[in-house]
## 1
Amino acid sequence: MSSPLLALFRREARIARSIGGGGAMGVVFFLILVSLTPFAIGPDLNLLSRIGPAILWIAALLATLLGLDRLFQADADDGSLDLFMMTSTPLELVVLVKCAAHWTLTALPLVAAAPLLGLMLGLEPQAQAGVAASLLAGTPALTLLGAIGAALTAGMRRGGLLMAVLILPLTTPVLIFGVSTAAAASGGTVPFLTPFLILCGLSLAAIAGAPFAAAAALRAREA
Amino acid sequence: MHQQLEGLHLSARSLRIERGGRAIVTDVSFELASGEALLVLGRNGAGKSTLLRALAGFLPLRGGEVVFTGGDSAPLSERAHYVGHADGLKSALTALENLAFWASMLGAPGQAPNGGLSPQQALEKVGLARIGDFPVGYLSAGQKRRVALARLFVAARPVWILDEPATALDVGSQEKFALAMAEHRAGGGMILAATHAPLGLLDAKELRLDAAASAARVPATAGAC
């Protein structure tokens, strides 16, 4: 990683950790969503452990999108985005590094918290490991797809809702293979590797393609 | 402070810039050489900011061309500084952190000192040596503007594109900044500035984007659409 990109990563990390940066909001939101679900469904431990992976995945999906609308909005508001266009670093790489920083600070804590919250939903140890592994493989795709929506809505007031409406339908494949990976880990007819590798493929495709889409959206913001 | 920059030449021919499908700037041409400055003048809404943003590479040109020659082959947007209405500063970070970040982003790749001043020296140059480790969020509007102007010094770039740079500056800071601009021109750099207040730029060229011209071009625009 060359030094401008390293500097960008450090800056993003420092802003996310500062007050109002929203670095810890995702994992708190995740905790609240998951702990509310048993109150809605009732204390049926068999039912909870069966639908546990799905609950964790939906909560992770919403928690990942929660902070993403600010990914480019803050930079657009204070003029930093204009200056990024004047650097010799391609805008695609700037997008990728911002996504990497966002993923490290918001999605990685979700991966770490998922087994603990799985305990609250009565998941077996294998299922807990499966959920954590599937989140680790699948959340990069969520962050990068969200970045496209964030770039498209960067110039708008209240763009966050529009971004969720644009992006949530696109996350369907990630959700399907994420939950089936988690389910396959605790037994079932499908071997674990099959959905897991598809999930990895979705993330790799998002890493390869989304920065170009997001950078194009950012460039077309004013024209 | 700068390496000597001679032989730069910027020429714009019959530029046309649109925003939201409407022509804002039509048929603007100018020539600028090393050490020269261009003042873009005009009433509110005449297209001063639009012109400068297009030159900085944020807006596409719908017609005409900008040719920048001299030095290496990097495009104008990578050899220019832009200071606009937004300061480009993060309020959670200190002034020094902000400047160090932009120094590494805007500096030439591969060159460690990138020909500019250190963030601390740049802050001294704008008279803010003692607030370097203050979060920018606590600074006044004029101090924030001075931190934004200090960005011009942390990475050496030959072209300065300034949109109302003296906003919120006190008299002393305006004089300091006029000196810094003169120094930049003496080193062979060029300056393009839009302003309503005098900036202290000596014998600068003037480009008027005035009301008469824009009134005259309305029928032509309608015809073009």
## 2
Amino acid sequence: MSAIAGEDLQRLVDDELEPARRLALEGMLESQPEDAERVRALKELNTAIRAAYAADLHEPVPARLLSAGSAKAGRWRFYGLAAGLFVVGLFTGWLVRGAMTTPSPGLSLPRQAAIAHAVYAPEVRHPVEVEAREEEHLVRWLSKRLGTDLKAPKLGALGYELVGGRLLSGSNGPVAHFMYQDTRGSRLTLYVSTQRGESGQTAFRYSQEERISVFYWIDGRNGYALSGEMEREQLLGIANAVYQQLNP
Amino acid sequence: MDDHPIVTHIPRLRRYARALANDRYLADDLVQDTLERAWKKYHLWRPGSDLRAWLFAIMHNVFVNQMRGRRLDLELLTDETPVVAVRPTQSDGLELDDLRRAMMRLSVEHREILVLVALEQMKYDEVGKTLDIPVGTVMSRLSRARERLRQHLEGGMSVVPLKAVK
């Protein structure tokens, strides 16, 4: 006997429910083995579809597609690219504007972090230099370069897995950049820089850099900035988790 | 230049195109037509809105228009394309090849909605916008698509409602 409406089961499988409703339904499933089985089967189907087509994403893109538009409508591609670059230019210009108008020695921490996020988060093929499967090596390497003991926080409980990281150059020297991703492909980056000379501690600060939300703080000699294209509240929850893991 | 947001979506567009066109060469033609349209119309894209949904909607429309123009290909739209027998799957997990074959037996409508929901993990309302259908239709079509896929995976002979799956 089925107790839960089919549509609700479907929403549960596709993660379309509000958290409270989802919890309630999951509770009901415990006493409804048939519905629970149905949910399990549907989830398995989702997983199987993903697995069956996973490899397609990694095939090299033929050159004709990279230059699509150049044969028949080359000028349009040119205009499109020009428009695109113009937009990228505007965006970068907007991000960099502080450096031009203030006598500060460099870009602020959140702005540098937002630029790094804007540059690397959309990368499909090379989002990181060292992948998460070499996490130990990654953390050791970046720690050595920054001259400080780094940690890559574990955010699995919040739905974000480590993709990997890379070394960047910031206004104060080397920067460690860790990238995380959830199952929907949404990405977060954690930017860790060393502060010149000064050492201290600040509370969380928030900065909105165009579409990118950034929470940043300074702890000892390190500056941290967590960036993501999401609402402030959502990012704050994750920033708290990061902070707690770095300061157990 | 290859970092342009449109370019970074090409692998996903190709995957979607294959699910639509059922043939990898036709699929890449479809990607090419879609990209040409997208570059032309890029100034119409609203920054901040979902570029993936915008590109997928263009591809869907290009495909539907091409289908209208090519009567012969309409058979691709039916749900009864004959294929070799599909092996029944075992309980130790679905065979990937079987799954792709079963997907190919679905109608384009069903295949495409499964790609958007299961593979692209789009939200129902994004799917609705991409296909230009109401969310209620997204849900009912999705449910039928899964039912069909399940039947094909089970050998295509019995009509076993999901509820009866043990």
